[in-house]
Amino acid sequence: PLRVAILISGGGSNMEALVRSMTGDHPARPVLVLSNRPGAGGLARAEAAGIATATVDHRGFETREAFEEALQARLEAARPDILCLAGFMRILTPGFVARWQGRMLNIHPSLLPLYPGLDTHARAIAAGDAEAGASVHEVTADLDGGPVLGQARVTLDPGETPETLAAKVLTQEHRLYPRVLREVAERLSRQSASPSARLSSL
Ligand code: GAR
User: Fold this and answer.
1) Is 31 in the pocket of ligand 1 (CB under 6 A)?
2) Residue ranges in the chain whose pLDDT is less than 70
3) Angle formed at CA 192 by CA 189 and CA 198, multiple of 5 degrees
4) What is the pLDDT of residue 73?
5) Site (Raises pKa of active site His): which residue positions (predicted)?
């Protein structure tokens, strides 16, 4: 199966949804959950699920590049085919992104291209939007700007607050991210299967 590493900074509810989805005939399996924050709630959840965990604390490095070198080394040791950012709250440099081109996904809590960056739910409410949601996109050097692979929508209710909206959207994220990961993994595993398929028919 394809190997998936999941990067987190916090509670890891999306990580857990991804991990739970990778069973049975799923073409991928989780091999590592990595946090940039020591003690992130998601680390304990991953351990409870029997997944290897690692912490690379960004505060231990002088520069973003030095942090990313350590991140890259730890990731390479796990040989992932796909990286999933799941509530990972560090901006990655174009150099790091280039190393994982086409193999790195992120979930963002807005209907991209609306509201890249932070405070997405407060911004959607302030704008008077009728709908909000989440997007899974390919990570490119353009922050929250890579190709969108899937979206989930919710309706804003009267009296909606950033907290109530975040909770509603998060529930949808847990369905959306596993669906998109599966599509991506199926596509990648077909691609990697086809050369040997051709060889075996010679
Ligand atoms: C999720 O809502 C995710 O979309 C968001 O952080 C939350 C993480 O929750 N990500 C970003 O804001 C990325 N800039 P989780 O740790 O429970 O999955």
Assistant:
1) no
2) 195-202
3) 125
4) 98
5) 144
- The closest of 100, 99, 106 to 143, measured between CA atoms, is 106
Condensed to tens digits (0 to 9), the pLDDT of residues 161-197 reads 999 999 999 999 999 999 999 999 999 999 887 765 5
Predicted pLDDT of residue 192:
81
SS (H, E, C) the chain: CEEEEEEECCCCHHHHHHHHHCCCCCCEEEEEEEECCCCCHHHHHHHHCCCCEEECCHHHCCCHHHHHHHHHHHHHHHCCCEEEECCCCCCCCHHHHHHCCCCEEEEECCCCCCCCCCCHHHHHHHCCCCEEEEEEEECCCCCCCCCEEEEEEEECCCCCCHHHHHHHHHHHHHHHHHHHHHHHHHHHHHHHHHHHHHHHCC
Can you read off the two tokens belonging to residue 181?
A: 């990961």
Pocket test for ligand 1, best of 88, 107, 139, 163 (most atoms within 8 A of CB): 107
Rounded to two decimals, the pTM is 0.95
